[in-house]
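Below sits the subject:
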Amino acid sequence: MALLTPQGVKKVFQFEKPKGREHLRRLLNWEEFDEVRDSRRSILLDTLYESIIFAVGKGFPWVEVAEVVKFTEELLKETKGCSITEAVTILGNKLRDYQGQFNTTHLLALCDYFHNTFIRHYKLYQYVLGQEQEVNLTVTHLEVCAPPQPLPLAEGMDRDIWQLEQQVAELSTAEVQKRTNMLLLKEALHMEQDHKLQRKFSEVPGQPSRVLKREELENLISEAIHVQIECLKELLQYEIQITFDILDLKLQKKTLNLKAPIPSPLSITGQPGQDESLKLHKANKGKKAKAKK
């Protein structure tokens, strides 16, 4: 409290609140503390700071402002753990002890201030400043990802045009997928055909070097042709279906292109062809005006 001089409290008042509170902490010779973890000390510092604001607002001289801070700190210490009746008695005794420090007007103002703040909310002060508080604090470090840098507005496009391009791109992707499926099916059918032919040839009785009879050879050729026709039939059916699907996708893309929205004037400004058209239009307008004259 030795550092709490009139000049010191004047600086506290002249600073903004955060800087003023920090300056008051140094004047009180308090060690630095965590405002979140040590909430009691933070509230006590707020109470002392508010007493300075009160005293200055009431026109107390700077010498008396320093005494108000001293008065507040002593009152909070002496009433710790007391009943409200005892606190009122202690407040009255302290006001009497400080009669020589303040004039009558300022003493009455100080009495009203503590009756309307400290005594009125006495239980709250006792609960916060008079007993230990259990603090459960969880600290989580979160990484904040900044949004990506937006592209220049000149590279932007109308929302409807962008949506159209997305739909066309999806249809093109679906068309490519259809063609890919077709190639995969062809390969699978060829492998299945070879497997069936191999199985039919392996069912021929007798030694491999044995000469086949005419009837056996005809049956073998007939079965081989049947296998090839079945595979070809399945392949043709799938090709027809795929072709219809691709044509339908092309028709959808054509329809979308016909329904494409007209670009706004802002979006077409700066395009080479458009600029030339505008210049030509202005030139023709000027020639017509001269012809009329």
Q: What stands out?
A: Residues 266-274 have pLDDT under 50 and may be disordered. Residues 158-204+215-263 form one domain. Residues 214-258 form the longest helix (45 residues). Residues 161 and 184 are 35 Å apart (CA to CA).
